[in-house]
Write a structure and sequence with these properties.
Layout (H helix, E strand, L loop, with lengths): L1 E7 L6 E5 L10 E6 L2 E7 L4 E3 L10 E4 L2 H27 L5 E7 L5 E7 L7 H11 L2 E6 L2 H8 L10 H4 L9 H6 L6 H4 L14 H7 L9 E4 L2 E9 L4 E6 L4 E5 L17
Parallel strand pairs: 8-9
Antiparallel strand pairs: 1-2, 1-4, 1-5, 3-4, 3-6, 7-8, 10-11, 11-12, 12-13
Helix pairs in contact: 1-2
Length: 274
C-alpha cells in the first residue's frame, strides 16, 4: 500500500494524486510536487488515502511542504505570467493571428511557460512560440482550448442561477449526448438544453441513470399497448411517476400507472405452513 494526497493546481481544477512521501500536510496547505513538466506548487484538497501500489504505479511524489519563500516565488511567477500573457496578445495581433488568450502560467521552476487560448479554427502559432521563447528563454507551450474548456476557465452563471458546474466543482467533464435529452423527455430546445458554452448541459449527466432505471417497465412513445379499453397508442410518458397516457382508436384516453415488479428473496431453507 502507498499513502497519497489529492492536490489541485488551479481552483476547481482536476484533482491529481501524489505519493505523500511521509509528508504531514493539512487540507488547504500547499506543497511542491514533481510532475512530468517540472516542479509545481499545488494545494492539498484531500486527506491521506491508502491505495495499492499496482493501482497507482509510477506515482510522482510530494517533494516538500511549501514554505513562505516558495509562496513568494509562486506569486512572482503568476505576476510574470500575466505580463507574458499581455506580450503574447500583442505579438499575436501583430502577426494577425486570430486567437484569444485567456490564461498563462509558469511551472514553479520556470522551466516552462504555458499559454492557453481559444480560436474559431486551428492556428499556426509556430512563429509566435519562437518569438516568445527568444524573449523569455524558456520552453513555450501553447494550448488551444475547446468551447467547454473555455467556459471552465472563464466561468459564468448558469440557467439555474448558480456558478457554472465546470468552473466550481466538476473536475472531469464527461461527454453529454442528445440521447440523454430524449431519455429524460426534455424538449429539444437549444435555449433550454444548452449551457453557456453552447453545448449540452453537463447536468444532464446527473439524473440520467435515475431516468434509465425508472423507464424499465414503461413503454416508449408511439408503442401500441393493451388496456382495459382495448389496444391504444402511447402518447405521453411520465417517467418519474411511473405512468403513461394512451389513446384508443375511438380517441378515448387511458391513463395507466405501472406498478414496480416485486422482488422476492430466495431462501435456501423451506418452511411449513401451519
Amino acid at each position: 500500500m502507498v499513502e497519497i494526497y489529492g492536490v489541485e493546481f488551479n481552483v476547481g481544477g482536476k484533482t491529481y494524486f501524489f505519493d505523500r512521501n511521509k509528508k504531514e500536510v493539512e487540507i488547504g496547505e500547499y506543497v511542491i510536487v514533481e510532475t512530468e513538466k517540472g516542479t509545481q506548487i499545488a494545494k492539498v484538497v484531500t486527506e491521506i488515502k491508502k491505495v495499492s501500489k499496482e493501482k497507482y504505479k509510477g506515482l510522482k511524489k510530494v517533494i516538500r511542504v511549501a514554505d513562505e519563500e516558495d509562496k513568494k516565488q509562486d506569486k512572482s511567477n503568476q505576476k510574470d505570467a500575466e505580463e507574458a500573457l499581455k506580450r503574447a496578445t500583442k505579438i499575436a495581433k501583430r502577426q494577425d493571428l486570430k486567437m484569444n488568450f485567456i490564461g498563462a502560467n509558469y511551472t514553479f521552476d520556470r522551466n516552462q511557460l504555458f499559454l492557453t487560448f481559444v480560436a474559431d479554427a486551428r492556428v499556426d502559432f509556430r512563429s509566435l512560440a519562437k518569438e516568445l521563447a527568444s524573449i523569455y528563454k524558456t520552453r513555450i507551450e501553447l494550448r488551444q482550448l475547446g468551447i467547454r474548456d473555455k467556459a471552465k476557465e472563464v466561468s459564468g452563471i448558469g440557467q439555474c442561477g448558480r456558478t457554472l458546474c465546470c468552473a466550481s466543482f466538476l473536475n472531469n467533464i464527461d461527454s453529454v449526448g442528445i440521447g440523454m435529452v430524449k431519455n429524460q423527455n426534455l424538449s429539444i430546445n437549444p435555449n433550454k438544453i444548452n449551457g453557456q458554452c453552447g453545448r449540452l448541459l453537463c447536468c444532464l449527466n446527473y439524473e440520467d441513470d435515475l431516468y434509465t432505471e425508472a423507464r424499465k417497465d414503461l413503454p416508449q412513445l408511439g408503442n401500441i399497448v393493451k388496456t382495459d379499453k382495448g389496444d391504444a397508442k402511447v402518447i405521453y410518458v411520465d417517467i418519474l411517476n411511473k405512468k403513461y397516457t394512451a389513446i384508443t382508436e375511438n380517441n378515448e384516453k387511458v391513463e395507466v400507472v405501472v406498478k414496480p415488479k416485486k422482488e422476492f428473496r430466495k431462501h435456501k431453507k423451506s418452511f411449513k405452513s401451519k
